[in-house]
Amino acid sequence: MIDLHSDTVTKPTQQMREAMSLAEVGDDVSEEDPTVKILEQRIANMFQKESALFFPSGTMSNLISIGG
After folding, report:
1. Among 2, 10, 28, 48, who pairs with 36 as Cys (CB 3.0-4.6 Å)?
2. What is the full DSSP assignment across 7-62?
3. Considering the entire predicted model, what is its pTM?
4. Start and end of every Aromatic amino acid beta-eliminating lyase/threonine aldolase domain (predicted)?
């Protein structure tokens, strides 16, 4: 059975943990995280926009979209 009642209940697999431990990281607030920069550029290109922003949660993106 798959538990879909919350995304905070699931636990990462060993493969996910390994990928996280090997990932290049940086401060995304200072635009220094290469993974976030690649994701934002891919999304901007996909929608033919100059730039895009990544938000770590739907709640955060909804708040920003209504001017919070």
Report:
1. 28
2. TTS----HHHHHHHHHS----TTTT--HHHHHHHHHHHHHTT-S-----SSHHHHH
3. 0.66
4. 3-66
